[in-house]
Structure prediction request, 409 residues.
Amino acid sequence: MKLWLKYLIGAVLGVAFALILPLNSTGSEGALSFITDIVIRFGRYIVVPLLFFTAMTAINKLRDTRMLLKTGIWTLIIIVASAILLIFVGLLSILIIRLPRIPITVDKTTDTAVLNLAGMVRSLFPSSAFDTLNNGSLLLASFLFACFAGGACTGDQVTFKPIVTIVDALSKLCYNIATLFTEVLSIGMIAVMCSWTIQFRSVITGGTFTPLILLLTGDFLITAFGIYPAVLHYICNDPHPFRILYASACSIIVSFFSGDTNLTLPINIRTGKESLGIRRRINGVTYPLFSIFARGGAALVTTVSFIVIWRSYANLSIPFRDILWIMFMSFALSFLLGGFPSGGPFIALTVLCTMYGRGFETGYLLLKPAAPIICSFAAAFDVLTAMFGSYIVGVKTQMIEHHSIPHFI
Prediction:
């Protein structure tokens, strides 16, 4: 059975359980929350070891074959271009379609989200390099350590050959473990989907956020079935760009309903290798970087959400100067969300409202009830970027072995 079909069945069962079982009591909600948290932790369990050993092997091989620079340049171009593209998609949609105003709430809060840049930089260089392997949220620290280690091993190939061999074997071992974990996680998808359905049902009750959800759905469909396949066809001359969308089905399901970008990383790496044929030396670098930095979906959601808040407070048109500021800040904030695999877009929206001021400091509270669903869309956009982007890098570096669709997992 195809992997995406297993996850789809798990999602359908989760919806059924959410609609049938009496989960309204405090005890039931607590039990479901506990099970869902365990499932998420289980899915993240192998992420750091898999990322570290695979990235170290990939960097070593790319530097040895002098393909590291080309791979890095293409990855950087796609990360930046995807963020700009998705911001424009969201901006055009929200400017063309004027959504109904969201009723102003009188909620007060003393907690304001902040992005502690100094703390993030410190976490990249802890007192011991091995401490970078302890943080399962900020993957950049582990990836950076892997880059240093993998690059250093090319300095003296004779001396470090045993280390390279061991790391290569550990990478394959972690991949086999990740394969098992991704199979088992399809069962845990029942709990994740059950929890998501309950949240979604509470969000759409009353219809206040339904127009926003429909707008984001339209943006995602346009991007997934129109913009990204067209870009892939133009850049790679690929006559069948929808193959990548089909290969991304499992990753999209997991990312959307979990809202977690790190959770999908093992699935992305496995799908990239077994379905798209992307060689390990590429997907060991691109997928982590896309997971950390390619948060264009968060930028799109932040842009759309802030304009919805702005229009809910004022009936006047938004000045062009402010639109440019919103776009730039959404773009910049998206690169700072690597330490927030889930909930990052709402944190960016909170920071954006605080920085804008002018009475909008608490404007993010208007969308707080819909935050989990909004973040789900952002995660789906981001995993779509990772799948299409890694494929483009694989083609441009000629590090790909094309597989036929019947052989996709």
Summary: The radius of gyration is 21 Å. The CA atoms of residues 174 and 285 lie 16 Å apart.
